[in-house]
Amino acid sequence: MERSGVINIYKEAGYTSHDVVAKLRGILKQKKIGHTGTLDPQAQGVLPVCLGKGTKLCDLLADHDKEYEAVLRLGITTDTQDMEGTILKESSVQVSEEEVRTCILSFQGEQQQVPPMYSALKVNGKKLCDLAREGKTVERKARKIKILKITIDQIALPFVTMTVTCSKGTYIRTLCADIGKALGCGGHMAELLRTATGSFSLENAIKLDDLKALAEQERAEEALLTMQEALRDFPVIKIAEGSTKLLYNGGKIQEKYFTKQPKALQEDEIAAVYDFENHLVGLYTLKKEETNFYIKPFKMLV
Fold first, then answer.
1. How far apart are CA 267 and CA 162, in angstroms?
2. CA 68, CA 81: separation in Å to the nearest integer?
3. Buried b or exposed e, range 150-162, using 16+ CB within 10 angstroms
């Protein structure tokens, strides 16, 4: 039986995101599984994993903002920007707590971030981390990211614990290294815990061993979020019975056939669309024609 939906996995240290998918295939006896974005091997926390038809949602769920708890260690610079790397330089930390606080908070907002060499990004078809292990360094283009909020939880120099809410594509390792560089003493990420991605949070994440125990009792479905539940962050539109055929054929449907819709429609917003019997049909993009809205298929889920 192929399951479809999303399981919110608590990834433990020592596993790559690919390892998690491989282990889930063994636990659930199902091949069609994909994750929603890599999490460093030594990092822990929320990793939503999509099953069956849910794999169509991987890219969309990966687009959500993320929240992390990170520990920055000032005074030590490593080649990987985290605790696993080779130490490149050690410096004394001659900065005050107030200077640290001011510097860190200045990183809030939109900025350009250069991805680290030790990352899964590909250049000319080859992963940067593989090139780095070969001793090669290639030029990486800076990418626009957004640090929505940084809360400094504790300063016990040379360590700083902080909570970071950020856009997709943000490297917390690089943020830590950039803060250390700005303070003049260098730094790296000592610990990382992803506490949320979109509406998926630590509170309802399940560890692999716990999921395995459920599967052995034939209760794995208890950890599975349905497609509808997985799309709870998206606005909902319901279509009138007379438009059912057009809806399932991926046709363009005018606003006058919406029987349920958000209070405020926004052009180019993606909505979860249901038929008159409340069956999820797919994700549709809202478009505007003069003063009226219509929807067109973005990703069919039937």
1. 36
2. 16
3. beeeebeebbbbb
Tell me how far apart the alpha carbons of residues 56 and 4 are, in angstroms, rounded to a whole number. Answer: 10
Annotate 253-287 with DSSP letters as a single string: EEGGGEEE--SS--TT-EEEEE-TT--EEEEEEEE
Task: Give whole-number Cα distances, 40 to 15, 159, 199, in Å.
Answer: 8, 20, 21
CA distance 44 to 20: 12
22: tokens are: 């491989």
Structure tokens at 5: 């939906």
Band of pLDDT at residue 131, cut at 50, 70 and 90: low
Token pair 């410096």: residue: 91
Task: Output the pTM of the full model.
Answer: 0.89
Residue 284 in tokens: 């549709």
Q: Provide the β-strand partners of residue 270.
A: 285
* 283 close to 270: Cβ distance less than 8 angstroms: yes
Q: Which two tokens stand for residue 295?
A: 């929807």
**Helical spans, DSSP H, in the chain:** 17-28, 58-62, 97-105, 128-133, 172-183, 208-216, 227-230, 244-248
Reported as a single tens digit per residue, the pLDDT across 230-279 is 998 899 999 999 999 999 998 899 999 999 998 888 999 999 999 999 99
What's CA 254's distance to the chain center, in Å?
33
Closest of 263, 275, 269 to residue 288, by C-alpha: 269
| 73-130 pLDDT, tens digit each | 999 999 999 998 899 999 999 999 999 999 999 999 999 998 887 767 777 777 767 7
* Catalytic residue ranges: 40
Q: How confident is the model at residue 293 (pLDDT cuts 50, 70, 90)?
A: very high
